[in-house]
Design brief:
Blueprint (H helix, E strand, L loop, with lengths): L13 E6 L2 H13 L2 E3 L7 E5 L4 H9 L3 E4 L12 E5 L2 E5 L6 H14 L4 H7 L3 H4 L3 H16 L9 E7 L9 H9 L2 E4 L5 H4 L7 E4 L11 E7 L2
Parallel strand pairs: 1-2, 1-3, 3-4, 7-10, 8-9, 8-10
Antiparallel strand pairs: 5-6
Length: 232
């Protein structure tokens, strides 16, 4: 990854906005939605957005003060970029391209807008108490999956303690079938042959246990175990 995606709580916090015109106004509206306190260059802040022609000197001055800076339409000067956003609060989906193509990010956002239901936020609120209700993380994931199944009507999780063996025909993660990609996303434990590419392993949950193994497990452990090997 070229950048670490992060959601920053800005409510009541100062954010510097420098510039005027349409680009600056668009950033102002976005910041106002987060509850940020918009300040000028003379104030103290940790983040700054610069929307002006020839921003180089201003950006250099702000970085010298230790601020993280976003320069509109100048990805080469940016410490952080602002993604295209699908807002289903409290669910927020952000699409970023690292400043390479805002148009591509916007096009992807439009597709996601059509796919994600407008009441997705209500589903998130409905499952918000599951952490307390289901202290065990595996049971909690299963409960969330059931809620998704009820909401969307077409999603299901591998149930019980099971092993799914996947023989990969390509090192490209884009060639994963829907079932393979879903199993990786759901896996509690990931066993894999040494030659499985990292790009494939990265499609699994970040907290899934990863074990290099020349053969699939004999017995199923708690939850879902996925074994990956390359086709011979």
């Amino acid at each position: 990854m070229h950048s670490l995606p992060a959601f920053v709580r800005l409510d009541g916090r100062p954010v510097m906005l420098i510039g005027d015109g349409g680009a600056a106004e668009a950033k102002r509206r976005l910041l106002e939605r987060t509850g940020a306190v918009i300040v000028g260059e003379e104030a103290e802040a940790a983040l700054a957005i610069v929307a002006m022609d020839d921003p180089d000197a201003t950006v250099a001055r702000l970085k010298a003060r230790g601020l993280l800076v976003n320069a509109v339409d100048r990805s080469d000067l940016c410490d952080f970029t602002l993604p295209a956003i699908v807002d289903r609060s409290p669910v927020i989906v952000a699409v970023g391209t690292g400043g390479v193509s805002a148009g591509l990010a916007a096009a992807l956002r439009q597709r996601l807008e059509a796919v994600l239901p407008s009441d997705l936020g209500k589903l998130a609120e409905a499952v918000s108490g599951f952490r307390k209700e289901y202290p065990d993380s595996r049971a909690r994931r299963t409960a969330i999956d059931h809620a998704l199944n009820d909401h969307f009507g077409h999603y299901s999780r591998e149930s019980g303690n099971s092993v799914v063996a996947i023989t990969l025909t390509s090192p490209d993660p884009d060639d994963l079938t829907l079932r393979q990609a879903r199993a990786l996303a759901q896996a509690d434990r990931l066993l894999h042959a040494p030659d499985v590419p990292p790009a494939i392993l990265d499609r699994a949950r970040a907290d899934a246990v990863r074990i290099v193994s020349p053969a699939p497990p004999v017995d199923a452990c708690d939850g879902l175990t996925v074994y990956l090997e390359m086709a011979r």
